[in-house]
Structure formats: C-alpha cells, structure tokens
Automatic annotation (TrEMBL), chain B:
Transmembrane segments: none annotated. It comes from Spirosoma profusum. SUPFAM superfamilies: Winged helix' DNA-binding domain (SSF46785). This is Helix-turn-helix transcriptional regulator. It holds the Pfam family PadR. It comes from the Bacteria. Residues 19-90 form the Transcription regulator PadR N-terminal domain. InterPro entries: Tscrpt_reg_PadR_N (IPR005149), WH-like_DNA-bd_sf (IPR036388), WH_DNA-bd_sf (IPR036390).
Length: 875, 112
C-alpha cells in the first residue's frame, strides 16, 4: 500500500489553496505523488509534493484579476483624501448631527478616560517594591460569635517571629500614632503642627522591605539610636524651610524629643503608608510603655502593624501554621480567639476587612459603568448614522455607478466615523483634564494625567478610539455599502430597504435600560443614605461638638476644662467621654458577667463616659438609674442587647449584677439599663454596650451647644481652650459630621453614580433627539396628509410619543429586575436597610418618561404644528 | 480584439492539451510535457499556466465524474477552445513565415 504524502503539506494545500480549484489540485497532486514515488523514489516524491503544495498556496497561485478597469487601492492616499473631503462636507452640512455625535462620544470617552485613570491608579498601589510577592503583613482574625478582622497583631509577635524562625528575611514592626502634635522650638519661638498622618515608630528593616529611598543619612544606622527620626523632604521643608534639617530636633505630643538623622524621598502617591515621620522603634518605650514591652500579648491595638519579607521559597501557609503556637504559649489564660494570618502586599489596598481603601468589586463596578457609557455613546452614533444613511443614498448610488466597490464605501464611512471619533477624543482629553481636579477632590487622591509618560493611558485611549471607530462605524458602513445603486439613484430606497429598524429600536432600548438601571441605583442609594442619616439612632446627635482631649491632660485639667467649657455662653452641657454613642472608634472586650468563671462569648462595646453622657445624648434609661460622678469605674450602665446576648428573659435581671471588663481590670455592678441605640454604623448590628466612668480612657469633650449662635459659642470654646492649653492645637468636629463619615464610601458611590447616570441620560437624550428630528423630517408628508384629513396636533404628537413610550417600557422591563437584584445585593452591606418598594421603580420610569418627552416634545410639536401646505406643495 | 499572445511555455501546455484531446487534465499534461520535452516541470507551474490560459479564453474546462483512485476527488478536464486553436494556428503560421523567410545559406549552415 502506498504511503500518504507529507501530512503538513497536504494540510496546507487543503486549507490555503484557492477554493475554486482546491479539489482537482489536491486530486492531481495525489496522483502525481504516486507517480513520483514510482519514478523518482519516496524522498524526491515527498520533496516535490511539498514544494508544489507550497507554491500553490493562495497568494502565490492566485488568478490574476482582470486589469482592464483598475480600481485604486481603497486606502491609497488619493482615496483617503477624497474620503476626508466628503466627510468634512457632510459634517458641515449636518451641523446638528455632527454636534450631537461629537458631544455624545466626547462625554462617553471622558468618563472612560477618568474611570480608567482611577482604576489604574488604584491597581498601581504599592507596585514599586522589590520582591513584592514575598512581602506580607501579619494580621489577626478574632474568632468569637462572629469573626473580627484586624490589621494589627500583638506588639511582641514580630520580635518573637524574628528570633524563633528564619523564614523571614526581614521583619519590621511599625507602631503608628495618628493625629499627633509636633512642636518645634527654636529659642523662644514655638511652632505647633497637627500631623494627621502621625509618626511611626519603625524598625530599620522596614526600609529593606519597602522601597522608600533615603536621600540623606545612612540606611544602616539612621533609626538605630533612641530619639532619632527621619522625615520626608516635604515635611522637612515644612518644618525647617530651606535650612539643613539634619540634627534639628522636634517634640511629639509634648512627650518625647527626636533628632533628625535622615531625609526620605517624598512618598509616591500610590502607596497606602502615608506616614511621613519615622522615628526609631527603640523610642517606643518612652511613648507607650505597654505596647513596647515584650509581654504585650494581652490585646491588639490598631497602632501596631508588622510586615515581613519571607525568604524565597517559603510559603505563607507554612508560616501561618506555626503561628497558633504563639497563641497557646503567650495567651494561655485568654480565650483562644486569636488566629494570626499573613496578608499579601498585593491585597493590602483592596481588602476592606483589613482597612483596604478600595475593594476590587467597587473597581469592577466602576469599570462596568465606564464600559456601559462607552457603549451608550457608540449606540447613539450607530443609531444616528443608520438613520442618516438614507440621505446618503444618492451619493452612494453615484459612487457605485462610477465603480466604487463595497470595500471602498465601507472604508469611506469608517473614515468619516474616524473623523468624528478623533474630534471627540481630543475633546474628551481636554474635558478629563478639566474635570480631574474634581475627581481628585472626591476621592482625596492625587491622580495626574500625563499622556507623554503614562503609556498605559495613551494605549488605552488609542485602543478605545479604534474600538469606537469600528464598533460604531462598521454597522452603518455595511448598510451603506449594501445599497442597490439602481434603487438608490431612483430614490426608491426607504427605511424598509435600509432595514435595521429593529436594530435601532433595540439599541435605544439598550440605552434606556442602562440609564434606568443607573437611575434606580441612584434612588436606592440615596434613600438608604437618607435612612441612615436621618432615622432615629436612639440618641440625639444634633448640636454636639466633639473636642479631642489635649494630649497629656490629667483628670484635674479635664475637670477644670469641663467646668470652664460649661460656663461659656451658649453651652448647654459638657460630657467627658471616650467616644460619642455612635462612633467608628470602638473599644471592645469580652465581659465576665456575674462572677462567672469564663468570659462571655460576645463582645461589649465599652463607652467610657461620665454622668453627663446619658442626659446629654438623651439616651433612654429604661430601668435603674444613671451612674454617679466618679473618676474610675465603680458602676455600669448596659443596653438591652446585653441582656439579649446573655439570653435573659427580662433586662431587669441585670440590675445589681457584677460585670468585669478587660480581664478584671474594670469591675462594677450594673445600675441601669438603657434602650438600644446604634453604637456603630448601619452596616453593623447593634452591640452589647457598657457605659462606665473611667478618667484614663476619655478622648473627647462632647459639648452640647445652642445652635442659635454657633459662631460665638465656638469662638468662646476656642478662647477657653487656648487659655488652658496654649501649646496645643484647637480642633473640633460636629458629631453629625462624624457620623456622616461612616458612609463616606457610599456617599462617594452615590455622587459617582449620580454623575454617571446624568451622563448616560444625557447621551441617551442626545440620541433620542437626533432620532426624533430625523423621524420628523421623514414623516413630513405623512403628517401633512394627516393634518389635511383632520388630525389634531395631539394625535400627531402621539405618533412620536407612541413609538418612544413603547421602547422605554421595554427598556424598563429589562432594567427593573436587574437593578432590583443588584441593589438588593448592595443593600446586604447594611444590617439596617430600607426595602426596595414599588415607588422606586415608579419614580425611575416616570423620570425617564419625563426626560424622554421633554426631548421628543420639541421636535414632535414642531412637526405637528407645521403648515401642511408647506410640506405638501412640492408634489 | 487584442492580438493573441502566447508565451513559450503556454504554447507547450496548450499544444499538449490539444494532443491529449478529450482526456487532458493536470496530471497527464504534466507527465506528457515531461516525457515529450524531457524537461522537469513542476506541477504548480503547469497548474498556474492552465489557469492563465483559461482566463485568456484559450482553454475551457469542466469537472469530470468522481474517481476512486484519488481519494474520490474529481478531475478538471481541459479542452482547447476555438480561440485557443486560432492562437496555435497563428503562432505556427508566424513561425512558418519566419522559417520561410530564412535565407537558404543560413538554413544550410544550421544543418537543415
């Protein structure tokens, strides 16, 4: 039996030879192969077969086309010039069409560019550290009834890990204290600075793990000595101007002095560690004795973070498996709730559980919205262009008669689209540069757009431009190229011939579905926000000013200042407390109830406060009495939830029972029960709460003022403050603003979606407007005849309205379930949520109708009011 | 009409098709040329030339019936059209005229 010819060559021949002759060529060659095998041998036959196959591949063996009438290459410079010329003429003739298209596309592109910069900014966080895949942060999961995630670990963990194991190439502990007071003294001149980002007590390995280069000073020694510090250039300039900052000194919180030994390059904008003052870790002893000690295993404070760069090849799972031993060894007496984990550097920015700034879901939502807007803009374009196509019929007919082929017409149309798109893109770049500052303000970011250095953005814009050109240009292009020249020239083409009426309809439906989804989203988020901010929190949050207690205050100064504050005119009441009833700063601990042996398996939120707290915030005492004035814990108030968590039948059973907190350090009987109030944001369920007086744990003066003359009262408070604390910065915040901060992310989302919904609606309306004006001009004669036969204006407007109402209704039917599903998922973020009622959907569809009718109305009315004589006279 | 122009190889192929009469197709044309002229011709060259001749209108072709020996693939049979025959005649006539115009002494030198 004969061997078959070389398989690859046979495949080439089969796949790539000219389809017209493929069959006989394959057959012929097969026959010849057999003949060659007999005459010249196997090898030569293989060789000849392959060679012939290769030569017969399509570009090498194509039939020569008839060259009698030459068609210029569709992209030849002559043709391109012609395309552009025609495009310009067309656009300048249809100015409104061009404007609508350009502005729609420009808006869509602006959003896309802004969203792209925002998303890539977030994705670029901390991407500049060497061996980033080996950098981890130690974090803690606390397993109680629910799992609580903390980005901190007990202070000594880092040290023990470094000493006990060799897995970590570098281990660095960082204790960061926010909102510190920096004092500079040069002779008599004292300067005070409040630093929000605070100071970080840092082990030197930190700068081997992270890539924050040192400009001045020796990396090996800068932070080894006690009381040494390094500053970023920016801070150094702020404190010391242009003088050499090295060896200058400053004080932190009027407690510890530092000498500057090095200067750090300014931090890049895309890093989460914003601290700009680093001080040596050995100094922590002088600042916080407990945290610095080697047996601070008892609890975790958010200040302490620990980073590690693992040796190559060490898996984080292996390290994590070693950590439970520490809990057994050092926390033998506590309930076994701590689980230490390693969090990869790449997750730091995105994991909201550990305080990440931006979740990937949110980025995805943004990206989708950007894509939606782009699609809406393209859809608009396709719609208008297809509608306009009829006006181009004669031109296309003439071109075809003169020898244009389909490809050419198609490319002509694409080049026209290209012209519009490129104008829009230039406009979009300008627009995004103009709107960037606002976006930065919203996101508190410092994003910059620089097309020359940011090749990703440039690439994105180019890609988006091409996408838009082809996505929106190809469909109308195909339609135009398909025209029958005879029909086109006779003027016998109608909308039916163009077809795609249903496609245009479905495009409008898509647009309105997207807009309506966004509108529903806006309404739901806004309602939830209003609910969270305005509903009864269980206490009165109005007219309360929160003043942070000055650092280094002792009970004496606190009492004095409280007294003096209450004498300021306009002040109604003053309470010393750790935090407002509802606060993001929480002190949670497992309580021991009624002298039981074990702590309970739930957390209480401890609100250390004096006896003014309950009356001032109008907390509702349901049983027992308020606490008496005291400087340390003597007695407690608890909320009803405390009873529920203990599974007691009536809260009254609690009265008189002992509670001890923080492993027995704070102990006292329960003297009163208060009604549950929201101690956390609406995202979380209400906790069990304990209120007790403890001078050591107060952070704020809560001052209730008379809102009638706020300015005077605030000035009075300021004056009193300065008399008491000349060396401290006066700083205050209204409680309702503090509470509003709980919902910062949501407010931001709301603002964004509002903006994007507005955009989507606007773009949609542009398209609708364009389409209606086109429809009106198409129907001129029909309307004329109808009017002659007795139609009223209303009936004629209804012709237009009918069409669009139907489309909007269909869009609504698509949008409503999707939006309902998505928004329900979003509401799950909240423990206390609104339900999405029919009213939301009613408002959404009514709003859309209103907007659409306003858009359609002008053109429709104009068409309806036209004098039929004018429209019918020509025939 | 444009004057027929035949390249040398085209002439050979066209003639071969004429020789093979009814049964001319890719394979036997290639083999015939090889045997008659003694020169090795590639199949692809023959194929493209056949295509070209057909385009010029000197050949016409039709597909034959299915065959068993070549994987069931049909053959494309070529026949010389009248234009083809005329072109061959013309070429031959030109040659003859040229030969006839040759001076007798030159003819003798060439060994004729």
């Amino acid at each position: 039996m004969l061997r078959p010819p070389p398989r690859f060559a046979a495949w080439l021949l089969k796949t790539f030879s000219h389809p017209d002759t493929s069959e006989e060529v394959q057959g012929d060659l097969l026959e010849l192969y057999a003949y060659w095998v007999e005459t010249v041998g196997q090898r030569s036959a293989d060789w000849r077969y392959s060679l012939s196959a290769l030569k017969l591949l399509r570009p090498l063996a194509q039939r020569k086309t008839n060259e009698q009438y030459t068609t210029p290459f569709f992209l030849s410079p002559v043709m391109l010039r012609n395309y552009l010329k025609i495009a310009f003429r067309n656009l300048s003739r249809n100015k409104s069409y061009a404007t609508i298209n350009v502005s729609g596309l420009a808006l869509g592109m602006t959003c896309a560019i802004l969203i792209f910069t925002l998303v890539s900014y977030h994705l670029s966080f901390d991407n500049f550290h060497a061996n980033a895949d080996r950098i981890y942060r130690f974090v803690t999961e606390q397993h109680r009834e629910t799992v609580h995630y903390s980005r901190s670990v007990p202070g000594p963990l880092g040290k023990s890990f470094r000493n006990d194991y060799t897995f970590g190439e570098k281990v660095a502990r960082v204790a960061t204290y926010d909102d510190v007071l920096i004092t500079l003294e040069s002779g008599k001149d004292v300067q005070k600075f409040k630093e929000d980002e605070g100071v970080a007590f840092t082990e030197t390995d930190f700068f081997d793990i992270f890539n924050y280069p040192l400009l001045k000073g020796d990396k090996a020694t800068v932070l080894t000595q006690p009381n040494t510090a390094i500053l970023t250039e920016r801070i150094a300039r702020k404190y010391f101007g242009n003088t050499n900052p090295i060896n200058k000194t400053f004080r932190v919180d009027n407690k510890v002095s530092f000498r500057v030994t090095g200067i750090l390059k300014d931090l890049p904008i895309n890093t989460d560690r914003r601290t700009e003052i680093y001080v040596s870790y050995v100094t922590l002893k002088q600042f916080d004795d407990w945290l610095a000690s080697d047996d601070a295993w008892g609890g975790i404070t958010s200040a302490m973070q620990c980073y590690v760069k693992l040796r190559p090849g060490v898996s984080p799972a292996r390290v994590e498996s070693l950590l439970p031993a520490y809990v057994k060894k050092y926390r033998a007496k506590s309930k076994n709730v701590h689980v230490y984990k390693l969090q990869p550097l790449a997750d730091l920015h995105f994991d909201a559980r550990y305080g990440g700034a931006m979740t990937k879901t949110n980025l995805l939502v943004l990206g989708l919205i950007g894509l939606f807007l782009m699609i809406t803009a393209c859809v608009n374009f396709v719609n208008l262009a297809t509608a306009q196509a009829l006006n181009r019929a004669k031109e296309v007919g003439v071109r075809k008669v003169l020898g244009s082929i389909r490809g050419q017409l198609f490319w002509q149309f694409i080049s026209e689209t290209g012209l519009i798109t490129i104008t829009a893109v230039v406009l979009a770049i300008v627009l995004s540069l103009l709107t960037l500052p606002y976006m930065n303000e919203w996101f508190q970011s410092q994003i910059r757009i620089n097309l020359l250095t940011d090749w990703r953005l440039t690439l994105f814009i180019l890609a988006a431009t091409f996408f838009v050109i082809f996505f929106s240009g190809s469909y109308p292009g195909l339609i135009i190229a398909r025209f029958q020249p005879v029909l086109a020239l006779k003027g016998k083409l109608s909308q039916q011939n163009i077809g795609g009426f249903n496609i245009r309809r479905s495009l409008i439906v898509t647009q309105f579905a997207i807009s309506q989804m966004l509108i529903i989203g806006v309404i739901v988020i806004a309602n939830q926000m209003r609910y969270a901010k305005q509903s009864d929190l269980g206490f009165n949050k109005d007219a309360v000013v929160m003043l942070p207690i000055a650092t280094g205050s002792n009970p004496q100064t606190m009492h004095t200042l409280t007294d003096r504050f209450s004498k300021v005119s306009g002040v109604k009441n003053v309470s010393l407390c750790r935090a407002a009833p509802s606060s993001s700063s929480n002190w949670t601990t497992s309580p021991t109830y009624d002298n039981r042996a074990e702590p309970e398996n739930f957390n209480v939120n401890v609100r250390a406060a004096d006896d003014h707290y309950v009356p001032m915030f109008e907390l509702d005492l349901v049983a027992g009495r308020n606490i008496f004035p005291a400087d340390s814990v003597k007695e407690f108030l608890v909320n009803e939830m405390f009873a529920k968590k203990l599974n007691l039948k009536s809260p009254d059973e609690l009265l008189g029972k002992m509670v001890s907190l923080n492993g027995g350090r704070l102990k006292g009987p329960i003297v009163g029960i208060i009604r549950d109030f929201h101690d956390l944001s609406f995202h979380q369920a209400i906790n069990a709460v304990c209120i007790g007086s403890d001078m050591n744990n107060y952070d704020y003066y809560a001052v209730k003022i008379d809102l009638a003359n706020t300015q005077q009262t605030l000035a009075g408070l300021n004056k009193t403050w300065n008399e008491m604390h000349p060396d401290q910065v006066y700083d205050y915040e209204f409680l309702d603003e503090q509470i509003a901060e709980f919902y910062e992310t949501e407010s931001l989302m709301l603002k964004l979606i509002q903006a994007f919904a507005a955009m989507a609606i606007f773009i949609g309306c542009l398209g609708l407007y364009g389409l209606v004006s086109f429809m009106a001009s198409q129907k001129t004669k029909e309307i004329g005849i109808r009017k002659v036969l007795g139609s009223t204006t209303g009936q004629i407007i209804w012709i237009f309205a009918k069409e669009f109402s139907r489309l909007i209704l269909i869009a609504f039917i698509v949008a409503a379930p999707v939006a309902w599903y998505v928004m329900n998922a979003w509401l799950k973020n909240f423990q206390f949520q609104i339900s999405i009622g029919a009213d939301v959907f009613a408002i959404a569809i009514a709003g859309t109708f209103l907007i659409a009718f306003v858009t359609v109305g002008y053109q429709a009315t104009k068409a309806a009011l036209m004098n039929p004589i004018k429209s019918l006279r020509s025939e | 009409m444009k004057r027929a122009f035949l390249g040398e190889f085209e002439e050979v192929v066209l003639l071969t098709v004429a020789i093979l009469d009814e049964g001319a197709y890719g394979v036997n044309i290639t083999q015939e040329i090889e045997q008659k002229t003694g020169r090795a011709v590639g199949f692809s060259t023959v194929h493209t030339t056949l295509q070209r001749l057909e385009e010029k209108g000197f050949l016409s072709s039709q597909m034959g019936g299915a065959t068993a020996e070549r994987g069931g693939r049909r053959k494309r049979f070529f026949t010389v059209t009248s234009a083809g025959r005329r072109a061959l005649q013309e070429v031959k006539q030109v040659r003859t005229e040229l030969w006839n115009a040759l001076p007798p002494q030159t003819l003798q030198l060439m060994g004729g």
